[in-house]
Amino acid sequence: MYVQNPFETNERAALRETVRKFVEADIMPYMYEWDEAGEIPWALHEKFGALGAWGLGVSEKYGGLGFDDCFMRSIFAEEVAKCGVGGVGAAMGGRGISIGPIEDFANEEIKEKCLADIVAGRVGSSLCITEPSGGSDVARMKTHAKQDGNHWVINGSKAFITGGMKSDYFVVGARTGGKGLKGITLFFVEADTAGFSRTEMDRKMGWWASDQAMLYFDDVRVPATNMLGEQDMGFLAIMNNFNFERISMVASMTGMMKACLEDSIAWAQERETFGTQLIKHQVIRHKIADMSARIDMVESYLHMICHQANVGEMPVAMVSKAKFSASKALEFVASESMQIMGGAGYLRGNRIESIYRDVKVNAIGGGSEEIMRDLAVRQMGL
Question: Are residue 179 and residue 253 in the same domain, yes or no?
Fold first, then answer.
């Protein structure tokens, strides 16, 4: 029913089957219960870590797989997203965008202390960039750090930090120089550091189990050796990190769209209106065709992006266009699926309802649709 991947391999196919079975056995029987409770059991992090979910791109020395594969990154994201409860995948995957900066820029002592445990899912970590006063506009970052002898003192706050309430380690962006992206430095901060505190962000539209938090830094002192990378160059050093995040989000949205389509078809085959199956009505058949076409286009684009990333040519413009194209496609597919299911789709406890609530977080998080359009045009040289 979906487009074939011309770059498929036996290893990738086997991984997809393994992750699919994990989702069916360890997530789907409990996901609505976790969603309502607003959290997932920590054991799930460790089970997912055992599959190698966070080991891609990480050295074997630190518990990683010793190789990277963008297709495999996408497989993990897509198959977990098919469960339909986005907060579950977010709670587990929040550490993903913090691992790269730690391996690439932390000193050996820090890496040996925490990286293997993070990759295995035994502890959590989070990347802290978004602030209450600005999300996608990173150049406006207000959290700042000042050097005091052989320490840096951090003051400020961060918002919507996924995994933030339970993470043990944080990669924190803070302004150390002038205005703009070139004045930002990354620091490694442990949760038990004096002056650090956090509060839960609840009452969200969706992603109820995502463990998102507000973080506060009040004269948080960290050793100068906790600086990650070069001073004032932190954000520029991890820009590719955000490309991988956006690719995973495109894959995740592809999985969500597939879940909506599959449940729509199943419902349309079961439901009868005016004496015939719902799926026999032309208007419903056309909705299914439109949804399927959008999924095919996004997935085909994703295949090409993953291939280019694997050969060392990160296609930033394509990634940006894929991100906003996927969120628009998801918005359409979720809405049409809800329309097909009617009132039944509006009830809690089905994938279409929970995915419908998660549409907007995908259109905003990881770079808003507007920012992605602007970035794409700039990457086109215009």
Answer: no
Other beta carbons within 10 Å of 21: 11
**Closest CA relative to residue 355, chosen from 343, 338, 340, 367:** 338
Integer Cα distance of 44 and 49 in angstroms: 8
* DSSP structure string for 14-50: HHHHHHHHHHHHHTTTTHHHHHHHT---HHHHHHHHH
Supply 207's token pair.
């992603």
Nearest in space to 159 (alpha carbons), one of 201, 209, 217? 201
- Quote the CA–CA distance of 220 and 223 in Å, as a whole number: 10
* Domain end position, chosen among 180, 202, 235: 235
Contacts (Cβ under 8 Å, ≥6 apart) of 267:
278, 340, 341, 344, 345
Whole-model pTM? 0.96
Burial class from Cβ neighbours inside 10 Å (0-12, 13-18, 19+) for residue 347 reads exposed
**Does 214 lie in the same domain as 151?**
yes
- For residue 277, give the nearest of 350, 343, 340 by alpha carbon: 340
pLDDT tens, position by position, 15-25:
999 999 999 99
Position of tokens 């999924």? 295
Judge whether 171 lies within some domain. Answer: yes
User: Which domain covers residue 71, as residue numbers?
Assistant: 10-94
> What are the tens digits of pLDDT across the range 12-54?
999 999 999 999 999 999 999 999 999 999 999 999 999 999 9
